[in-house]
Amino acid sequence: MIHKTLNDREPVPNLTDYATMQASFSWDAARAECAGLSDGGLNIAFEAVDRWVAAGRGEAIALRWLGKNGERRDFSYAELARLSDRFANGLQRLGINPGDRVCILAGRIPELYITALGTLKAGAVFCPLFSAFGPEPVRVRLVKSRARVLVTTTLLYRRKVREQRSDLPHLEQVLLTDSDSDEPGIRSFHTLLEAETDHRPPPRTQPEDWALLHFTSGTTGTPKGAIHVHQAVIAHRLTGCWVLDLRPGDIYWCTADPGWVTGVSYGIIAPLANGATLVVDEAEFDARRWYAILDRERVNVWYTAPTAIRMLMKVGAEALHGHDLGALRFMASVGEPLNPEAVTWGLATLGRPFHDTWWQTETGAIMIANYRAVDIWPGSMGQPLPGIEAAIVQRRSGGVDRLPPGEEGELALRMGWPSMFRGYLEDEERYRQCFAGGWYLSGDLATCDANGYFWFVGRNDDVIKTSGHLIGPFEVENVLMEHPAVAEAGMIGKPDEFAGEIVKAFVALKTGYEPGDALRKELLGFARTRLGPAVAPRELEFVADLPKTRSGKIMRRLLRARELGLPLGDVSTLEGEHLKDSDA
Ligand code: ATP
Ligand code: MG
Q1: 285-328 pLDDT, tens digit each
Q2: Closest ligand 1 atom, CA of 551?
Q3: In the chain, what are the domains?
Q4: Is there an atom of ligand 1 within 6 Å of 358 CB?
Q5: Cα 67 to averaged position of ligand 2 atoms, centre (Å)
Q6: Which end of the chain has fewer CB atoms within 10 angstroms, the N or the C?
Q7: Contact 240, 435 (CB under 8 A)
Q8: If you measure from the C-alpha of residue 560 to the centroid of ligand 2, how many angstroms do you get, rounded to a whole number?
Q9: Is pTM beyond 0.85 here?
């Protein structure tokens, strides 16, 4: 257990007394913390930028953009408010109505942030598409979302959209961020902005109006389009404050790309709604660059992902040499199970533990977390956000049964928090199947201990059934990760005549270790001593890398399909699948 000392509580955390807050919480009170619109309405972009301008903080820096070639540009809150107003005016001029979808296909460029905020102000629905997708996943999402407008770059347009334009009857306008010329169906983003005035009346959206459309990561199958409404911002603001401990003036860095839900909920909305300065790095992962950014920008709060942390661990502490991370107050992680090794590595190497947080595209905001003022059990996802009731349940016809502490079951959340998704686009039935007896069922398996901490076991689809046991891949992977040679590990169940399934491990090694029979035996023995023969892997294969989604999640279903010679299924979000396009 990592005990939080008084020192860790300087400056005073936003959430100091977890138990009291949990007992006294009300969503109405959380809503009252938002500025709101005069007619009882609510708008994400207004809460993110305009409220600060109205409060006299317009000159504070909202966005610090670091270009991949060393450029650096600051945007104040007032500037972001003004530019997003212009974009909203431009959308209106193009005939875009509330509820229409506006997609963006771009890397982390300033125009992306202007598009997101302007779209939300116009009452249209913002739908980000990850820039490294190939033409087919782009087409599928443009068709599914019925996007009327796409904001993108000339290169991405030429490579991924132009040839399929005739298959996209809904797509009326393409706005290019780096071109000045207009031609039929294609306009210049900046010319459009320049033609508009700064003046725009406040947004008119209501709390239940659609705001965001996010496609899931596709780790378990075909990605789903999850719909979120404007009042999600209540949860974004609250979790930014209580979980990420953000306060006005903080320098904050979320490393997730806005092509995924984390990069929007916590890469745009939550930090701005808390008055922080957002650091945006256009470049891809690079350990030295990352440490340099944390140091030079004096980052106070850092939100990243297990894959990135494991890569930093793999590179070793040497890359950190000469950097001062003394400004860092809080570090958190999301997206995949965070191995206990990674939590303690953070403490030993960076001086702070990583705080695991759990949530999904569907939940819209952080639901379970480790908090700055609360002790950490490494390997645990932490405790539910005040206002969220989480439980471990088993489905039965017509409802669910709650399971006692320690028992493994599906992680469920009591329905009704503001950022809960309001549907899967064009898949009403699948949406309905996510709910039973007043609970949202997450599809993740977990346990809850007697202290109320939740522990991730695995996704429903990834659990291995061997000799009458159910084994979550995470616990086996964690043990292998403790071995000094292992950089990453992924487990699958492989059909076996006697056991039903046996556990097979796929292992990527750290720099400086070579695969071989001796090391394989050593690792299998290492796992057996710690886990016992029933749970330990029986087979182990070395791989250079584990297959991952573009959002950095290990795709165990793919390891399994490859192993068993099964069809690979939907690989549209597989990292490396469209490498030829990824330099765009
Ligand atoms: P798809 O639903 O298309 O298969 P996905 O579930 O990976 O994709 P996301 O919504 O991006 O799409 O990811 C949410 C999932 O990520 C969770 O359901 C969980 O399996 C995993 N996850 C997120 N955070 C954590 C965490 N802290 N610990 C363990 N797993 C996590
Ligand atoms: Mg999912």
Answers
A1: 999 999 999 999 999 999 999 989 999 998 888 899 999 999 99
A2: 11
A3: 18-448 (3.40.50.12780), 461-546 (3.30.300.30)
A4: yes
A5: 32
A6: N
A7: no
A8: 18
A9: yes
